[in-house]
Amino acid sequence: MSQRSFVLFAVLLIAADLLGQARVIRVGLLRDKTVQKAVVMTHRGVYDVFTDGERKAQVTSHDGLKVEVGNGRLICRTLSSTYTARERIEFRSRQANSAFRMRSMDHRMAERAYEGGLEVTLENGALRLVNVVPLEEYVAGVVQSEAGRHHHLEYYKLQAVSCRTYALSNQRKHLDQGFEVCDRVHCQVYHGRNHTDTIAQAVLETRNMVMVDADIRLIHATFHSNCGGETLNAEDVWSKSEPYLQATTDTFCLAGSHATWQKRVPRKDWVAYLKRAYGVNTASSADLFPLLDHHPTCRGIYMNQREPLVPLKQVRADWKLNSTYFTLHEEGENVVFEGRGFGHGVGVCQEGAMEMARRGFSFVDILHYYYAEVHLVDLASLDFFRDIGQ
Ligand SMILES: [Zn+2]
Ligand SMILES: [Zn+2]
């Protein structure tokens, strides 16, 4: 590399780094509650308070304010003053790595701490609370909320890359509500800032990394609790196929805590269901037998081979089964489902991935074990390729 092109390369890298750093995401908070009154306290750093775009006050460490709805407006009270806003109150941080704590006064709940800033607007007579947070801090918060504690670093890295990819490919879900993703399971569970060191390290070591397919599109980074020994093709569950979401065998999850399950149902209820829901001729033993004695050799889509077909996915939903991967047999007055796995079975099997991480596989090995044909790229290069494609 010539000296000049090296300089250009270095500049590009720095620019890419700055781009990545500046990326923030808008997260709708406490979306399972109607909040009319909230308390906001600084946790770290100094915050400026803006009402309808005008700077009104400064809040320093461990100081706070109350925000509430009154006469169709937003009211914000500090210890010494009261401000009102027609549309918007913002709590903007002055430095990077500032954090605040927040609690709804209408609900019994523990306060939650968040990185970044807070924007409050009106929504049907209540507060719409939006955390404007650096993407990387959001990812760490999601990994902590979704994955929990005491996992291996490589497992957290896998989670970080998945959560980041998911967030960016689902940014339009709540566009009409003034934020990008919500803090519930509908998008990704987010209960605020991360405080687990291994998670912080995993997010840092995978900084700005996302997963793309062969056409450099962000992948649908789906996962489930336990596949039972065999994952499924995306089209077997959701009708749309994806080249990277292919069925694969998995030996790593077989000792996982959700590896097996059992459910007993009165035989007469099961037979009545088959007749009612699918029109199975239950008087015909040729029609009924495969639906009372089901022993598949691998995962399938239907319980039986002849019309009327009984889809496993529907059976799972109707009987609230852990998975579609089960055998069925008669036992006295009952039929017994003996099942394997928990969840839809597409993409990463979490208990298998945890076991792989424990046995020393890297997160890249784990990704490639569950997703066929995916690549890890930096967000900045993703923008670069997208610009070229347009
Ligand atoms: Zn959502
Ligand atoms: Zn598995």
Question: How would you characterize this protein structure?
Answer:
- The two termini are 29 Å apart.
- Helix content is 29%, strand content 27%.
- The chain has 11 helices and 20 strands.
- β17 and β18 form a beta hairpin.
- The chain has helices at residues 3-22, 135-147, 153-169, 197-205, 234-238, 267-278, 285-288, 312-318, 350-358, 363-370, 379-389; strands at 24-28, 37-44, 47-51, 54-59, 64-70, 73-77, 82-85, 88-93, 99-104, 112-115, 117-123, 126-134, 181-182, 209-212, 223-224, 260-266, 326-331, 334-340, 348-349, 375-378.
- It has 390 residues and is of the alpha+beta class.
- The strands form 5 sheets. Strands 4-3-8-11-12-1-13 form a 7-stranded mixed beta sheet. Strands 7-6-5-2-9-10 form a 6-stranded antiparallel beta sheet, with no helix packed on it.
- Among the domains are: 19-136, Tumour Suppressor Smad4 (Sandwich); 260-340, no CATH class.
- Bound molecules: zinc ion (2 copies).
- One zinc ion binds at residues 226-227, 250, 253, 349, 352.
